[in-house]
Amino acid sequence: MKPALQTMVIEEDIEKIGAYEALRKVKEIGYEAIEISGHLNLDDETIDQIERACRDFGLEVCALSCEYTGKVQRKSFFPGHRQLSLLNDFEGTVEVAKRLNCTTLRFAGQPVEMFHDDVEEMREYFRLTSEFAKRLAEEGITLCAHNHESEFHQIDGKTVWQWSVEECPELHYEMDIFGVQMSGLSPIDFLKTAAGRVDLIHYSDIAIAVKEDPRFTLDMIQRVPLGLGNINAQAVKTAAEETGTRYFIMEAAKMEGLDGYQVMKLALDNYNKLV
């Protein structure tokens, strides 16, 4: 299993100095793999810079973001940005993945807002997703779905995530450990339930910061780099290796006094202590 950096953490620097120079810094702090976030504007210039940076600095793109399949499309969070889309431009999306030597496409979450309590609508979504996953497999590409907390909303006695495991066997996963832990599900159970299908892990730790009022409130919960919170990273890493995970992708919120590279360097240092 290999550590990787999620480019969302350095997106502001990418906008300022370009992907090429930003990825030079990524290599300098010790990473050899990156995941391309949907936060980036994947225009031709940015894709060209990423391609050159990977070639020049020996970086690997472990996963590339794309938009959902299905008849209902979420309104873009990034108006004006070019987003890769399997539904609207399958061939173009595959072409970009192959340019970057990337064999994994990932959704940045499943469109839970379209499911509600309609089991048949949900099954139809997963049927369409399965078809895209099969088409991608013919191109040598795996389709993964990221999770947030919302994928653990229950419909007819099962979470949306459980429905996806059962209804869409071709779909693989990127387990966001923060979202899983916040949902009440054990990350270890997630890995075991979808063993062999959790190719990627998004790792940001959970810390509790006691405020002036010591009673429990949600604003006490902080997203921090690996090793600075309470999640048992060693147990997760061991289970992930046993169940076939390939990349441990670092993600965390900004920290006071540190830039994105410093935060990611801290996460990488703590990951290396687990090895």
In a few lines, what is going on in this structure?
The protein has 275 residues and is an alpha/beta fold.
Give an overview of the whole structure.
The model has no long low-confidence stretch (mean pLDDT 91). The protein is α/β, with parallel strands linked by helices. An eight-stranded parallel beta barrel has the order 1-2-3-4-5-8-9-12, surrounded by five helices. Strands 6-7 form a two-stranded antiparallel sheet. It has a two-stranded antiparallel sheet with strand order 10-11. Helix content is 40%, strand content 19%.
Features:
single chain; 275 residues; alpha/beta; two-stranded antiparallel sheet; 10 helices
Helix and strand sequence: EHHEHEHEHEEEHEHHEEEHEH
| Percent range for β-strand residues | 15-25%
Query: Would you identify the regions where 5 or more consecutive residues have pLDDT less than 50?
Result: none
How many extended strands?
Answer: 12
Quick one: biggest sheet?
8 strands, parallel, barrel
Write down the overall geometry.
globular
How are the strands of the largest sheet arranged?
1-2-3-4-5-8-9-12
Q: How far apart are the first and last residues' alpha carbons, in Å?
A: 10 Å
Rg over CA atoms:
18 Å
Relative helix content: 25-40%
Helix/strand structural class: alpha/beta
Mean pLDDT: 91
Helix count from the secondary structure assignment: 10
Assembly status: single chain
Please outline the helices and strands.
Blueprint: E1 2-6, H1 11-17, H2 19-28, E2 33-36, H3 44-57, E3 60-66, H4 90-99, E4 104-107, H5 119-138, E5 142-146, E6 154-155, E7 158-159, H6 160-167, E8 172-176, H7 177-183, H8 187-193, E9 198-203, E10 205-208, E11 221-224, H9 233-243, E12 247-250, H10 260-274
Parallel strand pairs: 1-2, 1-12, 2-3, 3-4, 4-5, 5-8, 8-9, 9-12
Antiparallel strand pairs: 6-7, 10-11
